[in-house]
Fatty acid hydroxylase domain-containing protein
Amino acid sequence: MDFVSSSFNSTLGALTNPATAQLATDLYKGTDFNSLNVLEKAWANWYLYWGNPVLATGIMSFVLHEIVYFGRAIPWIIIDQMPSMRKYKLQDEKIPTAKQQWDCTKSVLLSHFTVELPQIWSFHPICEYFGMATHEVPFPSLSTMAWQIALFFVFEDAFHYWAHRALHWGPLYKHIHKKHHEFSAPFGLAAEYAHPLEVLILGTGTIGGPFLLCAFTKNLHILTVYVWIVLRLFQAIDAHSGYDLPISMHNWIPFWAGADHHDHHHAAFVGCYATSFRWWDHFMGTDASYKRTRARQAEKKRQAALAAKAAEVKSS
């Protein structure tokens, strides 16, 4: 924390440089730096350091995406190598090989640098066009960020349901969505393993909510969008993990989808089209196969437990 503060102070000390002083005046006119908290000072320091808001936002956005995506996927790679975790694997007979994971990683990285990087780089000017705050400080309140992110989850889930369902229509599936279904038993790294057009189509649901909210309210900070993106990446990677752990969110939030829901989609190739929540599939009846499958599995476990109990009584 002291390092951040001293770094910020040293940057402000460089305001004797006319160019830096002018940038600070342009970006932070009327800002009382003494009233900012440590994170807000670090945020301003970042923009002053780069000296170009578009460059600063572009670098931060892309680096954040890469760190979170691969940082969240790595634990699932480790879990795949742990036999003790097989009991939580939804398709325990299908463990991704090292080759599959490496091929997936190469494809995802190619997509990140050729498809997503241009989108991320253009994010700042698009944000400013819609009136979104980027370099500004102080940050919005936690309550404001919370209700805005909740809206983004609801919007993205609805958009994803209908767009994803459309991608399962014959020609769209054959030429676009089929790539994502190469893995009938998904794993974390495969969350963004998709055709470039699919990345563009489904990505619209992720950034569409923030853009619409900002266009109508002019009240949105890019920090809120970053928190939303981080949570969305966690959701997507966990949904593709292939594991249903006791701590998985759907076990304590009944309408949460999670891997239990999405893994069936990859196994059956149809149904369970939503991302975060279960309600669209429930109301549209596109989770019927999922419910039948889970019911059969539950009954099989019940019968196995009864048989084990009977065997135990007989042996005693």
Summary: Residues 52-285 form one domain. The chain has two domains: 1-51, 52-285. Residues 1-8 have pLDDT under 50 and may be disordered. Residues 53-80 form the longest helix (28 residues).
